[in-house]
Specification:
The protein has 268 residues and is an alpha+beta fold. The protein is built from 8 helices and 11 strands. β4 and β5 form a beta hairpin. The structure holds iron/sulfur cluster (SF4) (3 copies). The site of one iron/sulfur cluster has 14 residues, from α3.
């Protein structure tokens, strides 16, 4: 078991992702892979990168590899009422991360100074307990190196004094052509990201899990052609419940529906 820092850091660095703006282009995922192919967690390996018939662990895996950021796209609703939601997923740098406390070696840890959750590859034994503990599927096992890897919040970029200050932001943020990704201190209520979250009613992913994710998602705005201009932002939970009830009319409440829906969209 690994302990969390005894004092919660005042600085909580994280991402704010705007689901209303994201166009699902995968530029963030690709630039994440590009940046992190070197540096802190390098290399980020691939198997069978050009696909074909090669198998991995007995399965025909096709092209596969380690990605710290993956973008899932799904359709909710029917006909004119339908909408497409693109959902980028990476580590949420939770305040109460079970992926840390479950680690038997101390390899998985949370930094006291800024809240970033990292893995020390020198002490990771590849037991995968942390990937079972993470409800967001944010851990990526590297079969080549035999260790667990994950989003580092580009710790080797955001503090890199060899870069211009304007470039000291995560690779996924600097590359997003739509401006859907924001980086900053969510522990400071007056920071740009905190103000944005407040204004747009940003929320935690699966808050009922109790992990207190630092990253926030900004919900899709209501569609104007459906008279929703002045309505409250569309709740991800409501979208999830809608999607789930369409798939299974006998479903239970929103919480259960959301869990199963997130589970299904996060499965690879
Ligand atoms: S780069 Fe921006 S718009 Fe493209 S998938 Fe990522 S968050 Fe969405
Ligand atoms: S895979 Fe590595 S980081 Fe994860 S719990 Fe096991 S030792 Fe810790
Ligand atoms: S913060 Fe860095 S490591 Fe994390 S998803 Fe973005 S680019 Fe990848």
């Amino acid at each position: 078991m690994t302990s969390l820092p005894t004092t919660s850091s005042a600085t909580k660095l994280g991402l704010v992702i705007d689901l209303d703006i994201c166009v699902g282009c995968h530029a963030c995922a690709v630039n994440c892979k590009e940046w992190n192919a070197g540096g802190h967690s390098a290399p980020m390996t691939d198997w069978n990168p050009y696909s074909g018939t090669e198998s991995h662990e007995g399965d025909d895996a096709g092209a596969w590899g380690v990605w710290f950021n993956r973008v899932h796209t799904f359709e909710v609703g029917e006909a004119e009422a339908s909408r497409t939601v693109h959902f980028p997923r990476s580590c949420l740098h939770c305040e109460e991360p079970a992926c840390v406390t479950v680690c038997p070696t101390g390899a998985s840890y949370k930094r006291e100074e800024d809240g970033i959750v990292l893995v020390n590859p020198d002490t990771c034994i590849g037991c995968k307990l942390c990937s079972w503990a993470c409800p967001y599927g944010a851990r990526e096992y590297d079969h080549t190196d035999g260790v667990m890897k994950k989003c580092t919040l580009c710790v080797d970029k955001i503090y890199n004094e060899n870069l211009e200050e304007v470039d000291r932001v995560p690779a996924c943020v600097s590359t997003c052509p739509a401006g859907a990704r924001h980086f900053g201190d969510l522990g400071d209520p007056n920071s740009d990201v905190s103000v944005l979250v407040k204004e747009r009613q940003g929320y935690d992913l699966m808050p009922e899990m109790g992990y207190k994710p630092t990253n926030k998602y900004l919900p899709p705005r209501p569609r104007r052609d459906q008279g929703g201009e002045n309505d409250a932002p569309v709740s991800l939970a409501a979208l999830a419940a809608q999607a789930q009830s369409e798939a299974n009319p006998n479903t239970d409440g929103v919480g259960g529906a959301l869990l199963r829906w997130v589970d299904s969209v996060l499965s690879r």
